[in-house]
Amino acid sequence: MTVTAWYGSVYFYQDIDFRGDLYPLDISETQKCFNMQCFDDKVSSAKWVGLPRAGQIHGKSHIAFYTSKDCVGPHIHLPTDAFINGKRDNFPTNLRKYAMNDKLSSFMIWETSEKATNGITTTCKW
SUPFAM superfamilies under this entry (predicted)? Predict the structure, then answer.
């Protein structure tokens, strides 16, 4: 098995349409749960760059957003290539459409499965 190094960023916004306070996170691991302690229940839109696209979930990697810490409970997942509903770069501009507005508490990049095999961490930049 070949392991490829990567480095990506996920941008969380307090308001819809990528506006309001921004909480950027730089990541380089899949299968790791990130608890969003400092921006918990404040996210209304999100976008990302540099995440792995290939994976074992229908041939793609996914980004999963959870309403509970530790990446458990209700969640949504979207392909990291952001090709959603036949559109490229179709990032979630309004998480209300997914019943997730102001409810995100953790997230994870699924490359091989839905399990946090690389552990759980808490992110807080301030």
Answer: gamma-Crystallin-like
CA 78 to chain centre: 8
Q: What is the mean pLDDT of residues 51-69?
A: 96
Q: From CA 16, how far away is CA 87, in angstroms rounded? A: 19
Residue range 5-21, pLDDT digits in tens: 799 999 999 999 999 99
Note the pLDDT of residue 125.
58
CATH topology of domain 8-106: Gamma-B Crystallin; domain 1 (2.60.20)
The whole-angstrom separation of Cα 23 and Cα 126 is 10
Domain ranges of the chain: 8-106
- Nearest CA-CA partner of 64 in 15, 108, 12: 108
